[in-house]
Each structure stands twice: as C-alpha cells, then as structure tokens.
Amino acid sequence: MSENKSRDDRHDEQLNGGSSGAGLRAYLWHRAKPYSPPWVGAAAVGIAGVGGNLMWDGSVAGGVGLTLSSVALTGAAWWAGRRTDAARRLHSAVTVAAASSWVTAAALAGPAAGPLPDLYVMGGVVGALSWNLRQVMRRNPDGGGPEESSDSGLLAKVGLAKAKLGAAKVEPNRLTVPISLPAGEATHDDVTKALPRLASGLDVPTTAVRYSPDPDSARRGTLTVVPVDMLKEITWYPGASMPGGSVADPLVIGTYDNGDRLQLTLPQAVHLLIMGVTGAGKTEGALDVLAEILTRRDVIVWLSDPKRGQDLGEAFGGCDWVVQDGAGAEVMIEAIKAAIPARQQWLGSRGYRSWCPEAAEVQPDGSPGMPYLVAWFEEAANTLRAVDEDAFTGIAQEARSAGITLVVSMQRASGYQISTDTRASLPAALCFGVDERDASFALPSDVLDAGANPGAWGNKRPGYCYLVSAGVAEPLWATPGRTFRCDPVVLEHAVRAFAGVRAAVDPVTAAAAGGAVGRAYTERAAARQTTRAALGPADQDEDEMADSRVDPEDEHLNVEAELAEADDSPMFAPDGGHKPTPEEARYLFGEALAEFEHQGRMVVGPKDFMDWCEANGYSRPWVSERLKEAALSGRLEPTGKPGRWRIVPAPAMA
Predict the structure, then answer these.
(1) Which of residues 111 and 417 earns the better pLDDT score?
(2) Phi/psi at 320 (nearest 5 deg)?
(3) Is the pTM above the cut of 0.70?
(4) What fold characterizes domain 232-513?
(5) CA 505, CA 325: separation in Å to the nearest integer?
(6) Which CATH architecture does the domain made up of 575-652 adopt?
(7) Average pLDDT in the 336-365 region?
(8) How many whole angstroms separate alpha carbon 288 and alpha carbon 372?
C-alpha cells in the first residue's frame, strides 16, 4: 500500500478488500497491529517484574534503587510531554507511574505476592485499553485530524500546523494566546500572512485578528482575537477628561474595541498626522482633539483652516492665531520658524532641556511661563500646494525641543500629496478609513503586518481609527478604536467655559512671531474678532459685532463725516504718464512692499507684482532683481520655497 495515501484512503481499501478466509485473517491481523504496542508494553511490565524479583528479592539496596528509578522515570515522562496537550501528558505520566510502581513491588515482594497478580491483570488490561481508545479517537473523519483540537486544526489549515499555542488569556471581548513557531521553519511574516485566513476560519472581520511579535524572538508572539465589534455603538463625547489639566496629560478622544480609553499625549506624540477619506470621521476626530486641548491650562493653538471655519469655526475664539488661506499658512510657517530658536533659547536659559508643564508656570524670577504651542494645519493638502512641499520637514525636526507640536490633517496621506521626508517627520498618526492604496503610506509597515487594515473601512465605519504614537503601548497600535461622536457645539462650549483657564501667548513667542511677520501676527486678535463677527456668535449683539470690526487705528475716525472725493489714479502710477526712472521704480517697489506688509501679506514672490509690472511697464525679471536687492538689504528673507520671500517688518530692521 502506498505511503502517500491518506489514512482515509487506506481505511476504505481495508473495508473493501477481499473476503476470503486468508484475506480475513490478514485483515484482522493488519487492523490489530496498530493497537498492539500497549499490550506488548503490558507484557513487558510483567516480564520486568519477574526478572526484577529474581535479581533483587529481599535486597534493600535494590528496593531503594528501584524506587528512585520509578520516580525518575515518571518525572521524565512528565517532562517529555511538556510540548503535548495536557490530557496526553497526564495520561503518559500516570501510565508510567503505575507500571514502574508495580515492577518495583513485584521485584521486592514477588509477582505473585498479595494483590499484585490481580493488580497486574486488571491494571494492564485497563492501561492497554485506555491507550487503544486514544488511538481509536484519533481518527475523526468529521473533525480536524489526529489528536487535533479545533485550534490546532485551524492552524494547520492556515499553514501553521507546527505552531504551538500557549495558555489563553480571556478578557472581556478579547482572547490573547501566546504562539510559538517551529524553530528554523517559520517567522513572524508567516503569521502575518496567515491573519486573513485565521479571521476567515474564526468567522470574524479581518481587523479582529491581530499579531504582536515578541521583539526578542523571531518565532514567538501573541495572537489577539476580538470576537465582538464593540465599536458599532456610537459614544458621544462625554466632556473634558481633565478640565484645567496640563496638555502633558493624555487627551481622551475615544475608546478601543475592548472598552479601554483611546488616549493621545501630544508632547509624546511630537508631531501628528490625521488622515481619513471623506466620510471616515476625520473631522469629528479633530473636534475631539481640539475640544480636549482647549480645556487645558498650559497650551495655545495656532490654526490654519482653508475651509474658513466650515468645520472648526467654533474653535477660532479659543485659538491664539487663525489664518484661513494658503498665503496665511505660508506666513504662519515663517512665524513658527522664527519662534523655534526663540523658545529654545528661553527654555535653555532656565535649565529646561525640553518643554515640561513647569515651564508654563510663573518662573522663580517672576517672569511669565511659556505655554505649549500646537500649530494645527487643517486640510493641509491646500497648504502644501501653496508652500514648499517640504515646508513642515525642517521645522518638525527642531520643534520638539521648543515645545511645539505640528498637527497636519488631510484626506489622503499619499506620495502624491506629501513627500516621504515630510511624512517621516510626522511620527504619530491618527488614521481613519483610507483608500486601500494609501494604507501603506498612512501607517508603518509593522503595524499593517500586525493586522491593522484602515483600507478595509474606507468611509463605511465613520470614526474607526488606529492611533500610532509614542506613549501608546505598541500592541495597541494595530488595535482599532473609535473616536467620540462630537459636535461643533462642544467646541463652542469649550471655548467659552474654559476661557479663564487657557493660557495666553508668552512674550517670547509673541515677539518672535511679530518680529518675523509683523502685522500678520500682531493684529491677529482683531482679525479673529472680525471672523467671529462674520460667523455671528449667538452671544454677541449687533453693537458688539460692529465694535469688533473696527481697526484700532481707525477708532478716531468720524464714521458720519462726508467722504472725500474719490481718487481713481493708480497707486503706483508715475506723474505725467512717463515711465519711472530706476531710482523712482526702486522707491515705488519699496512702497509696494510696505503696502503688502500693511495688508499682512508677509510672503511674496514675482507673481504678486504682476499688476504693478503691468501698470509701470516693468518685466518679471526686473522684479526678480529688485527682490534680490531687497534681500541683500535685509528687507526680505528667503523662505524654504524657491521664488518666495518673507518681508522683514520695517520696525524689526536694523
């Protein structure tokens, strides 16, 4: 009979074989052979007892040696069965203990003494039959195979037949099982590739089965199975988790699939990328994070929102600075660049190697503290189109020690939207449902290998997310969570109720930002009030809204006075219609820079002067030369993007 045939095939051949007398005897003998070893073993025990009695009858030394041998043999049987299932290990140890005990007694007292003959007959028959029953139960056509539990059978189906499962740990809605792979035959990659098939075998979603490799071993790890999706139920934002606390304390923004809290600690996260396709719940996740930040005592927020308050407008009143277009974001980036060295110098001069909550308190010399700074860039794809694509890379590398966190929020974190260098500078990620093609860019490869699959959600599971960040235990990186359902009213409440708790900007940061971008920052409060008035907050009457729109420089004007006759002449038009001389043109160019500064447009390039060129008859190359001259004179400074210059505020010039 071929060795390649399965046990079932051989069984069928035996049942369908010849029915002659010789064939019957051969069949019976063939069927009896697999069950003969236990009976042969029982006979060997009897022979060993008789032989031992002939050698050590009445010998004290022999009795001691046989007793010790019996104990040692039983222990060896227990040790040898450590890699088998518990039932087989116990059965083997009991059988060896009973047989060695009878041999010892028979050797010392004689095999026919007292009850020993009866014990031998009954014990031998029972022991041999018990092992025969195990053999019979091995063959289970409807089960998983010889001596397989349902788990080992499933492992065999997914290609992990030789893997050993440890003792399972059962928690509420979570099963954790250590797994050990065969030495030299399998690695962590084999387990991660098998996860979808394991999920299929267990009839659970693919995201419900995860694998956490042991960092100290290439073949050991932990399988986690979450049988019930507890994230299906919506949980509304329960309110501030730590009102008046420090931003260094965790922000509670949702729950994991086993009910644990989903927590983000910004100073540990360093810089955060928030991503998710339309409808995946990214905006509500942002509301959760902002609502938590705005209830803390030692943090200020700079917010770039190209959607002009459509989603985050209620947060504007709680932010230190808000910009609403690409040009404003470009200016904000320049302000951050200037704030980093100023903040680093302040922290270093007071003995802080990095920002900590104590740095935000009043200092021993009586000077005000320095709150943490969160620079939030909403819909950052718009910002990246307006500025250099690596605009965040440089500031991200230095901002951590200055107590600054960058939050970059965008729908698609892909190579088409953001460079790999910029992505690498954002170590933390709050990832909602994404396009399957973007999953590898959204999360680290080891998190995806462990079973994380945001591409499986898309926008079908709003609020479902993965949080990868320092301060979060690594096994949780591949664990799905869901952010709280939030509402803009929550932000509005946080802004108003905690206005007396939040810190004001420190003088060092304000001076650095004002020195870098001038009125674009120093007049931020008036701009924010104007924005709030435009949004129509419920608690402002018409007079308050009108007052909030008055520029401080215009307070002396009489709004009822008659207007002067309009002057339609161009701002930079030369007298008499002649083309300005080079000296006049340079003067007019300086006036144009001053006008841009007055408007808060602190980052400019040749394209911003197109109207001026057309009015005065100058070409773009001529403007480019004047920009270079202004840079040499200190009126402009280069930005990270070629062809873009930052205007140095006139009061800051030497």
Answers:
(1) 111
(2) -75, -30
(3) no
(4) Rossmann fold (3.40.50)
(5) 22
(6) Orthogonal Bundle (1.10)
(7) 92
(8) 18
